[in-house]
Amino acid sequence: MKVIVVGSSHGGYEAVRGILQEAPETEIQWYERGDFISFLSCGMQLYLEGVVKNVNAVRYETEDHAKAQGVAVFVRQEITGLDPANHEVTVHDLAAATTRTEHYDKLVLAVGAVPVALPIPGADLQNVYAMRGRDWAVRLKARTVDPAITNVVVIGAGYIGVEAAEVFAKAGKHVTLIDVLPRALQLYLDEEFTAPLTQTMQDHGITPAMGQSVEAFEGDAGRVTAVRTDSATYPADLVIMSAGIKPATDWLKGVVDLDAKGLIKVDDHQQTTAKDVYAVGDATLVPYAPVGGKQRIALATVARRQGRTAAKNILGQPMKTPAVAGASALSVFAYHFASTGVKAGNAGQLGVQTKSVYVEDTVQPPFVPSAAGNVPVYFKLTYAADSQRILGAQIMSKRDVTANINAISLAIQGGMTLQDLAYADFFFQPGFDRPWNIMNVAAQAALLGKTTVKAD
């Protein structure tokens, strides 16, 4: 059997890995449009801040290792066409400027997504960067130490934008963070959490410019000099675009079914509407555990589960993609936060009636001094108003307590209720936590009808 995998990031890598683990004799061709396979954009901040020294280490796989396992790896080769009826793809060799066709028995599309480019004047000016992929990582790294860069404007205050803002603030630049939404990180956290995070960003030299629409990039001699919004103009020697992503699927129109946003339609087994063609990753939707249906969740964890599911089905082992809650985490200077599932801020969009309880406590018992690391922790639990089923949660502290969110994700997937969580078994040791885990405390308070609990 010959399997062609298009794309080498999370989903494509996992599809290849899954097939190799169970059927290493399979003929696999693995295609990457760039010149470097398996770069992890989610590790870019670690490289830009110098935690990881070698940009080439920010990856899952190398060409040599993949080839040693029998995988035929093709870099600088782009799949530009698909003929499902004849089980063929068109391959454009970017280096040689030649085109050929390749036959497949099974095909995995891990085509991913590309940054959204704002259709505004000045978008073609120099020093307007993205923050996705190895090439951009190398360019951005150079700009962190470029003395000609003083003012940096980041457009988009999601995870990528906040990471970029922090990188350049730590590099001593003046950073402005712009988003059309009223709060930074609004898609991931409710206001109880974004308020202190916004303050800490300001304390570190980042100027939030929320609720503003970018209208133009201004320039001089071909280089960007400012960003104009509907509210103000901000000086800019460098602009970093992180205003969302769009699926890289234009070339698939009329070949496989796409939805109105260009996402590839797949069934529970990652099969597209074309026979023997599977799709995984950021260009697809995924089953959503909290409320059912499907959502777009552009996370590495999701793509890898989809890639493994595709591999299983390709090998004749029927498997459905597991429903996920979209758990994710990030650090913003001293704070560490994580969230999963439904939040008060997106419950209406998901069409579900919810209630929430918010808890402020300390990580350890009160007798443990702050000098020993006992710091405040903030936790919010969201549940269904009728059934009291757990739907989501958010947690934040200057101690890393983010792993609690993994327990909530399991609770969501297992259909647990407040009653289940209120007395669920978690360990206690005063060097680590409280006798009642903060998840217990929140669920017990919710059962009493409380909406806020603060430590005495």
UniProtKB/TrEMBL annotation:
The keyword Flavoprotein applies. Residues 1-307 form the FAD/NAD(P)-binding domain. Residues 332-433 form the Pyridine nucleotide-disulphide oxidoreductase dimerisation domain. Keywords: FAD, Flavoprotein, Oxidation, Oxidoreductase, Redox-active center. Pfam families: Pyr_redox_2 (PF07992), Pyr_redox_dim (PF02852). Its cofactor is FAD. Belongs to the class-III pyridine nucleotide-disulfide oxidoreductase family. This is FAD-dependent oxidoreductase.
